[in-house]
What does this fold into?
Amino acid sequence: MDFAEIQRIIIYTIKMVNHTFQIERQGLYDPAYERDACGVGLLLNIQGKKSHKTIDDGLKILENMIHRGAEGADTATGDGAGIMIQIPHEFILSQGISVPENGSYGTGLVFMPKEEKRIAEILDTIEQATEVEGLSLFTVRDVPTDDSMLGAGALDAEPAIKQIFISETAKSKLLLDIRLYRTRRRIEKACTDTYIVSLSSKNMIYKGMLPSAQLRHYFLDLQNPALTSGISLVHSRFSTNTFPSWMLAQPFRLLGHNGEINTIRGNRLWSSARESISQSPILGDEETINPFIQPKMSDSASLDNMLEFFTMSGMSLPHALAMVDTQTGKIYRDNEVKESLANQFPYGEWLRKNRIHLEAIASGRKVAKSIDEYFSK
It folds into this structure.
């Protein structure tokens, strides 16, 4: 088998991963070993002031982490790179999109197959899913990209990239982001060939199967001075023992993760086992969101799924992670976070009232210390 044939097989396999988002165990590949060991960087304005400079500087950090990411044989196909920013409300308005007040709508990028018929079917499914939650898909935007620098692997697996905008049509006791979360889970279960990069009223993500230096050039939005944010979370992926993928590029919806989780199989199994008792009145019926962890994803993606479930269930982000607050303009150190969590409830009193000392337990029975018919020599 010559090099060209090997490359053809690799490109085909990458294409299958990205177009179906599923691949079965074959040869030396086992999806159970999907793990990341990557580079991550965070830049923010502690007062929460938005600017394009924060995005530009974040991309510079990413470009200086090129040694933390991996590339394909053609060097123009990367394991993945991405950036998380706050929703750029003013930029969206500048694109001629009439959105409601900032924070009262959800948006995010979606990876889809490129077939026009399938795109139309997926958009119909998205529209139906939003209506169930009292929401409305009111605009779909073609995300401008430049694929001229993509390597063969990335180009062959490149999805159609749409940005969807969703608003409320009916009042609900559920918060908007919880309804967006439920909507996303409905879509994911109905469309296994579709990947929702993010769907939120707070942040959005640009990512792809790119080397670090390609991200700002591939997504033309990132070059626009009107695109602003107070936060830039960037990530350069090194997929260990696995294939690169558009959907497995980071950041994910809440975090950018650097490292490998060696207990990932056990963690996933325990999560599955606890789904039946992990009900949340805030999230509504569990059938809509189960399983919490999206199947056949990386270890970092599973961690993000679990973190998202905890926060959507009403747990604070510091509590869920046991970090960095731009609303108060303060950085919370580890001991401060733990002190704040410890003071939320009277844990000491609960412990004193409910702690059982084993030495104080008595059943009233006496156990003989001798053994019948035992004779020592």
Observations:
- The chain has a mean pLDDT of 82.
- Residues 3-20 form the longest helix (18 residues).
